[in-house]
Amino acid sequence: xxxxIIVTHPDITSSVVNKRWIExxxxxxxxxxxxxxxxxxPDERIDALAEQKLVEQYDKIVFQFPYYWFNCPPLFKKxxxxxxxxxWAYGSKSGYKMSGKKIALAISVGVDEREYSxxxxxxxxxxxxxxxxELSFEYVKADYHPLFAYYGIELNSSKEWIERSVPLYLDFLxxx
Length: 176
Known about the structure:
Blueprint: E1 3-7, H1 17-25, E2 32-36, H2 37-40, H3 48-56, E3 60-67, H4 74-83, E4 102-109, H5 126-129, H6 131-139, E5 143-144, E6 148-150, H7 159-174
Parallel strand pairs: 1-2, 1-3, 3-4, 4-5, 4-6
Helix pairs in contact: 1-7
């Protein structure tokens, strides 16, 4: 069964790592379906019914996005609000359409990993800061998996640093 990768990057053309990940995923159409929200919805008007039907077709779904300002891009938040609705994702006998689906986040992080490690200077990890996503997916009875984060893109945007992320990301996807 293929994995649905829902990419939410507001400026994919200037991206370095997310764009590279998409290029790599597109080499394996038998394994991955890449769905770019900002490309499909440039006006940010989400077709919730179409998104729900898309999600229903896959058992494994990964949400890929850049992490900035301690959160996700706004279109991903809007997607959560408009797609994961009462009666479909939760709250009724016909709801829980995401129940049992393997869900994970794949995040590119601009700063080094040490910026998100517990110490006197740094208080929170990315895992802690993304806990609301985990709780949301648990609430709809999805099978949430630990996230994939690739750090240091702002300071290490060399071709070598970006290429280093590709097999790590593919290994992560294969482990779902």
